[in-house]
Design brief:
The protein has 225 residues and is of the alpha+beta class. It has 2 domains: 96 residues, Palm domain of DNA polymerase; 82 residues, no CATH class. It is built from 8 helices and 5 strands, in the order βαββαββαααααα. A 5-stranded antiparallel sheet has the order 2-3-1-4-5. The radius of gyration is 20 Å and the shape is elongated.
Length: 225
């Protein structure tokens, strides 16, 4: 049997219904689209369509989904991550659907308003083009202390002194960096184990740190995207 020539890929998504509903409303761009068909949510992207191997589509879709989670967490006040499922549909040049399966194996407030989602398209388009942006957004999809610090390093490496840029207050930056680096402040989540790193007198909570880096990341993306 001749192997079908796939011209369009649809990758199944799983997650909380309100997260998926909000993605469908907010993300509908050529670079990434989230849409529902027959009760299933799918991710589609013009970056996936040239790929021939379904397993490569799956891996690329996982990376895109990390970016989607990152920009959603950046854009919305509340967010719970979505994931790629084991359902991939390839549409051939005649419009016929071909299914591919792979064996692998939240309660949060609903966003009450939706700002202009065109900014999401700019973020995603830039992330697809630029590795540093893709990494920063992917890291924000899982905002651990380590990932938050990585985002800070990406931004700092690009623009230098974020305080001089007017993107952060010196005191808040010191609270973030000292908290992130000292086990005395955050235990095993700290970047270092050495006691030579001294904690800040007013360490940041993880919630504060996430908010701090979210604001910094948004400012940086506004600068380059």
């Amino acid at each position: 049997m001749q192997k079908p020539v796939i011209s369009r890929w649809l990758v199944g998504l799983t997650g909380a219904s309100h997260d998926l509903d909000e993605l469908e409303l907010a993300i509908g761009f050529p670079v990434v689209t989230v849409a529902r068909s027959n009760g299933v949510y799918y991710l589609e992207s013009n970056t996936l369509n040239p790929i021939e191997d379904p397993s490569e589509v799956l891996n690329a879709a996982k990376r895109l989904t990390e970016m989607v989670n990152g920009v959603a967490r950046l854009h919305f006040d509340h967010w719970g991550n979505v994931e790629v499922s084991n359902s991939i549909v390839g549409i051939d040049e005649q419009g016929h659907a071909h299914k591919f399966a792979f064996g692998f194996g939240t309660g949060r407030p609903v966003n009450e308003s939706y700002a202009d989602s065109a900014i999401i398209e700019r973020w995603l388009a830039t992330a697809v083009r630029e590795e540093r942006v893709a990494n920063a957004i992917r890291f924000f999809s899982t905002p651990t202390w380590t990932n938050l610090y990585k985002i800070f390093e990406i931004v700092r490496d690009d623009v230098g002194d974020v305080v001089a840029q007017g993107w952060a207050a010196k005191r808040e930056l010191a609270r973030f960096t000292q908290t992130a680096q000292t086990p005395e402040s955050i235990g095993d989540a700290a970047r270092h184990a050495s006691k030579k790193f001294k904690p800040h007198a007013e360490p940041m909570s993880h919630t504060e740190a996430t908010s701090f880096i979210k604001d910094l990341l948004r400012r940086w993306l506004g600068h380059i995207a």
